[in-house]
TrEMBL record:
GO terms for cellular component: extracellular space; interleukin-6 receptor complex. Belongs to the IL-6 superfamily. The gene is Il6. PANTHER family: INTERLEUKIN-6. Cytokine with a wide variety of biological functions in immunity, tissue regeneration, and metabolism. Binds to IL6R, then the complex associates to the signaling subunit IL6ST/gp130 to trigger the intracellular IL6-signaling pathway. The interaction with the membrane-bound IL6R and IL6ST stimulates 'classic signaling', whereas the binding of IL6 and soluble IL6R to IL6ST stimulates 'trans-signaling'. Alternatively, 'cluster signaling' occurs when membrane-bound IL6:IL6R complexes on transmitter cells activate IL6ST receptors on neighboring receiver cells. GO terms for molecular function: cytokine activity; interleukin-6 receptor binding. InterPro entries: 4_helix_cytokine-like_core, IL-6-like, IL-6/GCSF/MGF. This is Interleukin-6. Keywords: Acute phase. One of its GO terms (biological process) is immune response.
């Protein structure tokens, strides 16, 4: 929809230049997308990373909700579901207090930085957030599915 409505597409040169958002990612080093033995030894680290990433995405999704107003209700629902998932996964971590949840000052600082963008950059930023959130969720689903299939794990 972003590509159609705002002509913000994957091959946009401006988009590539502006991708300095430092969005959360799930990587092989997190133990989330590697082999069975490695995965088992890093599963707690993986769950912490996923939960922390989901909490971090909350601020970005609030920005998307404010800027992509035509999809406000959908983004609000997505944000609520993301927060619920972050909380659920946090409860699966051995020490839930180790999950990094951005404090109010960090969230406000990030929101201020995001809001300072020009309209064109705002649309690119919204697209990048949604694209990276989709990638993060795909890897999260894969990691949780793997955990569920390799252990007596209920999610």
């Amino acid at each position: 929809q972003m590509c159609e409505k705002f002509t913000v597409c994957e091959n946009s040169m401006e988009m590539l230049l502006q991708n300095n958002l430092n969005l959360p990612r799930v990587t092989e080093e997190d133990g989330s997308v590697s082999n069975f033995l490695t995965f088992l030894s890093f599963q707690d680290k993986c769950l912490r990373k996923i939960s922390s990433g989901l909490y971090t995405f909350q601020t970005y999704l609030k920005y998307v909700q404010e800027t992509f107003t035509s999809e406000n209700q959908n983004v609000e629902s997505l944000s609520y579901s993301t927060e619920h998932l972050a909380h659920t996964i946090r409860q699966m971590v051995i020490n839930p207090e180790e999950v990094i949840i951005p404090d109010a000052a960090t969230q406000e600082s990030l929101r201020t930085k995001l809001k300072s963008s020009k309209t064109w950059i705002e649309k690119i930023t919204t697209h990048l957030i949604l694209r990276d959130f989709t990638s993060f969720m795909e890897k999260t689903v894969r990691a949780v599915r793997y955990l569920k299939n390799t252990r007596s794990f209920s999610a």
